[in-house]
Design a protein that fits this description.
The complex is a heterodimer of chains A (73) and B (655).
Chain A (H helix, E strand, L loop, with lengths): L10 E6 L7 H5 L7 E7 L6 E5 L2 E5 L1 H4 L3 E4 L1
Antiparallel strand pairs in A: 1-2, 1-5, 2-3, 3-4
Chain B lengths: L4 E7 L5 H9 L3 E5 L6 E8 L5 E6 L11 H11 L9 E7 L3 H12 L5 E6 L3 H5 L1 E3 L1 H8 L2 E4 L8 H9 L14 H6 L4 H23 E3 L1 H4 L1 H10 L4 H42 L4 H18 L2 H17 L1 H14 L8 H6 L4 H7 L6 H10 L8 H12 L11 H27 L9 E3 L8 H35 L3 H5 L1 H8 L5 H14 L2 H13 L6 H9 L6 H11 L8 H7 L12 H13 L4 H11 L3 H25 L1
Parallel strand pairs in B: 1-4, 1-5, 5-6, 6-8
Antiparallel strand pairs in B: 2-3, 3-4, 7-9
Classes of the chains: A mainly beta (73), B alpha/beta (655).
Chain lengths: 73, 655
């Protein structure tokens, strides 16, 4: 499953992604394998997604979110 | 005194780095550009002790030194090239207590450059409310650095920081013990993959340290943020709040700035008169009172509006609200080929397209950024206002048809809507037409809500306003001097012998009437008059005469020059002190004696200015931001042709 499959309030651990498919900035902000991620909220039109990645709050589009594999905890 | 100590400030966005810069430098700061690129360069000076002054450079906010953007590569250059003018003696890395882990990534990269480095942990005041504890001495030891706890809000820690910077020779130069070199050199990974591996290594290192010396009580951390987010990004209330704020801003912008603007207007009119009456007569006095003073007045009059707009924008930005708007609007904007981040340029565009287009830099996706850059000049910038204001007051009859709103306000509002409409619509078309493949990257930090600090807002407004006045001011001043010269001198005998020619032709005229006739005859045969006459055939179908033609040409420098030009044209040689509006009202076509500024011509002018790309500086900034002439030229021609056609149709229909 990917981040885009999470629903509001879900918590998960990032398992893997293809480096070339996601922006470097996201990696630098702490979105790496093993990081904790929580879906804080979806925008009114279900996109973008508002996340808490390892304590950093950020928003990304669904398209990017669907490239990042996670495991729910 | 010795040369100042060079200090570089670096840190992630939203860490309070700019607050710290403001605390250190106060009013001793200046904003410029790095040569050749458009990244803002902020420098300032700060007294560290009685004998030592530091020159401080505020590097652009960045998450890493991986140099994937222009801002980041500036930071890398300054910190790694010993011959660079700004190569610092000390680096101060500003981190924020809540996101220490992420902030330390940049710290470890800076530390590895082998420069004396101080780590500032900002927002100390949050530690108690958020239940955070840090074991500072041990952390200092593990990171081989000096740590300063600081609160920009409560203004504590600054003197400790100054001491640490003063004693920079005691700072350790030992890099963080992270084995990253093995990744960088030995493998055949792509650059991005290497950076990814490097980042992971660094985060592991940081995690190991912070797990031991940094603790958060999670339960205390979140309540307020979640509640406010729930309201502000709500599917109904979120949009209502956003549009209410926008409406409030525009309302305030127009009603509040009216008073200072009127004041400035009359002050300059007075100054111009005073110079004319009190200085010895001659070319210089005329240049001053007819060219330079009205020219400067034309720029200064925008200060209230620009300042108010930046005041509101920086409050929205500082408080953390702007990120929520971006989040809220992204999906909608994407339907038009724009990004949620285009909201900021489009709103800023109502002040001035130049900072607005620069703000588009935050948009990661090239196609969305390009479209934003191309459509932003359609939004009604402050420079169009004086043009609109004078024409509306001339050709639109006064009245209060709708809920007490005056016809003038209604027309002005429609022109704003027209601008936004044109921007959105052309974005939609460009999105369909442009064939650019680029990844839909979009990352935005959602910072904590903060009470905006007065100091930060104040300096931001000051910087932006100063940049506008100096930037636009130079052009407008130059244009108004040039104009005055072109209007005061002419080719050939018609101009030189104007007085006799008029006297022989109109023998019945006397006194003031004769003077006016001579002045207008002179203007008609001056250099600029000749040129205006030359282009008259091409603008006649739009309802304009050659004088408007001159204003149209000169206002390509900047739209507001239109008013200044008419002011100069109508005041060259004229002794009469009535306002520009009265002069325009009296202006008639020489053949038919009908007023020049009638309803069809007025509407045609309003529409022309709504759509035309009448701004040299915008062309220049678009060239800079798109790296070439292709896009600014396409943009300019498309907008101007469109404006011409719309004005043509409206005049022909209304006429």
């Amino acid at each position: 499953m990917t981040i885009s499959d999470l629903v509001k309030g879900d918590k998960a651990i990032i398992t893997s992604f293809i480096v070339d498919d996601i922006p470097l900035k996201l990696i630098e902000m702490g979105c790496i394998e093993g990081s904790f991620v929580e879906l804080v909220q979806k925008a009114p039109l279900k996109d973008p997604l508002y996340l808490n990645v390892n304590g950093t709050y950020l928003a990304i589009r669904k398209e990017t979110a669907s490239q990042i594999l996670v495991e729910k905890v | 005194m010795s040369t100042p100590l060079k200090v570089a400030l670096i840190g992630n966005p939203n860490t309070g780095k700019t607050s710290l810069f403001n605390s250190l430098t106060g009013l001793n700061q200046k904003v410029g550009n790095y040569p050749g690129i458009t990244v803002d360069k902020k420098t300032g000076s700060c007294k560290l002790s009685d004998s030592v002054t530091a020159s401080i450079i505020d590097l652009p906010g960045t998450y890493s030194l991986n140099a994937s953007s222009e801002d980041e590569s500036i930071a890398v250059k300054v910190l790694s090239e010993k011959e660079n003018t700004y190569y610092p003696d000390v680096v101060v890395v500003v981190a924020e207590v809540e996101n220490l882990k992420r902030n330390l990534l940049l710290f470890t990269q800076v530390k590895d450059l082998g420069l004396p480095t101080v780590l500032v942990i900002n927002m100390q005041d949050l530690m108690q409310t958020k239940g955070i504890t840090i074991d500072v001495p041990t952390l200092e030891e593990e990171l081989n650095t000096k740590i300063i706890l600081l609160s920009s809000k409560k203004n504590t820690g600054v003197s400790q920081l100054k001491d640490a910077v003063l004693n920079y020779k005691n700072l350790s130069l030992v890099p963080c013990a992270i084995e990253t070199n093995s990744i960088l050199k030995s493998t055949n990974l792509s650059e991005k993959q290497q950076q990814h591996k490097d980042t992971i290594k660094r985060y592991q290192f940081i995690k190991n340290i912070l797990d031991k010396h940094y603790a958060v009580e999670v339960t205390r951390a979140e309540g307020f943020r979640a509640k406010l987010d729930g309201l502000i990004t709500h599917k109904v209330f979120g949009y209502i709040i956003f549009f209410a704020i926008l409406f409030g801003i525009f309302q305030a912008l127009f009603s509040w700035s009216e008073y200072p603007m009127d004041l400035i207007d009359s002050a300059f009119a007075f100054l111009s008169d005073w110079t004319k009456n009190n200085l010895p007569e001659g070319v210089f006095t005329r240049l001053l009172s007819e060219g330079i003073i009205p020219g400067i007045g034309g720029v200064v009059i925008f200060i209230p509006q620009i300042a108010f707009l930046f005041l509101f924008l920086s409050i929205l930005e500082e408080s953390g609200y702007m990120s929520r708007v971006v989040f809220l609007m992204d999906k909608i904007m994407r339907k038009f080929g724009l990004s949620g981040k285009s909201v900021v340029p489009l709103i800023s565009g109502t002040a001035c397209a130049i900072p607005a287009i620069m703000a588009a830099r935050n948009i990661e996706n090239w196609k969305e950024r390009l479209i934003t850059i191309l459509v932003t000049p359609f939004t009604t910038c402050a420079a169009r206002l004086p043009v609109y204001a004078i024409i509306i007051s001339l050709v639109i009859p006064k009245g209060n048809p709708l809920l007490g709103m005056s016809t003038h306000a209604l027309v002005l509002m429609s022109l704003y809507m027209l601008g936004f409409g044109a921007a959105i619509l052309s974005a939609y078309i460009l999105n369909k037409v442009l064939k650019i493949q680029s990844k839909s990257y979009f990352v935005i930090e959602m910072p904590n809500y903060k009470m905006p600090l007065f100091k930060n807002v104040f300096y931001n407004v000051l910087d932006k306003t100063k940049a506008f006045v100096l930037g636009a001011g130079k052009i407008i001043l130059a244009v108004s001097i040039l104009l005055w010269v072109l209007a005061s001198y002419g080719p050939g005998a018609d101009f030189d012998n104007a007085e006799e020619l008029v006297k022989t032709e109109f023998t019945n005229l006397e006194g003031e009437e004769l003077d006016t006739k001579i002045a207008s005859y002179k203007l008609e045969h001056s250099y600029i008059g000749t040129f205006g006459k030359f282009i008259e055939p091409s603008i006649k179908p739009l309802g304009y005469d050659w004088k408007i033609g001159i204003a149209l040409i000169t206002s390509f420098a900047a739209r507001e020059v239109f008013v200044g030009t008419l002011a100069t044209i109508y005041s060259v040689g004229s002794e009469d002190e009535s306002t520009l509006k009265e002069k325009m009202k009296r202006e008639v076509h020489s053949g038919t004696m009908k007023p020049v500024f009638d309803f069809p011509t007025g509407i045609s002018l309003l529409l022309f200015y709504a759509f035309a790309m009448q701004c040299m500086s915008t062309v220049a900034i678009v060239k800079k931001e798109t790296n070439g002439w292709k896009w600014p030229l396409i943009q300019m021609f498309a907008m101007t042709i469109f404006a011409y056609l719309v004005a043509l149709v409206s005049y022909q229909v209304l006429h």
